[in-house]
Amino acid sequence: MIGASAIFRRGSVMGSFEYRQAEEIRNSFAGHGVRYLFLGKSGAILLGFPDTTQDADVFPEKNVGNCRAVAAALQELGFALAPAEVAEIERGKDFIQLKNGPFDLDLIFAPDGIERFADAWERRVEIEGFPVCHPDDIIASKAATNRQKDRESLPRLRSFRDWWMQQKR
Amino acid sequence: MSGDQSGGEVGIPCEWREEFEAAARRPLALRMRYAFIKTYKPVLDDARFRAWDSTAEYRDWCERNLPPWLGYGQL
Prior knowledge:
heterodimer; A: alpha+beta; four-stranded mixed beta sheet; two-stranded antiparallel ribbon; 7 helices; 6 strands; B: mainly alpha; 40% helix
């Protein structure tokens, strides 16, 4: 097991996601050769978006080898996965919600609004070694969900994208 | 947002621009400490593991099972 994952409580009383845990994901996924991107508001926060969220969203590439690597990495991180749950991750079910580990994590193998992982990977942004979806992909994904909570955050997220692009010039 | 509130460049409201700039001055670890909060979400937090064959099925499940005030429902 990596780092101090085991000290974090599981279930609804667990603490919030921390930088150290993001590092653990990064290091474990790298060790297992996982191809993935941070997505959603957690991805935007890594890019510098000042807002709040509750859990981390990860967009792994959907292929047999990568899905197996994700399952192995999650077990190393301290996620208590039953054999049937490992099998579902290895199958690459499109949306998997994990609350059986040191932090809450959503695995989104087929996010709304993003056609292909390879395209998002080409557009990715690296922040301190964290691979993150480009703000345009984060916005496209949130816009496509058509949910109340996403609609409320989109205007500010679009402004952040504009500001972020200005900083890149 | 009206044009009067923007910083004059691509219509970013001044208040938001100041927040973006302030966030950029903080190290990532501190930004994350401010950003990630944990509160109990009924139903959603009551299972250790859930998996859906498609994202559409997940959205449908949220629509049918979660309290509307959580904001996961479709518009």
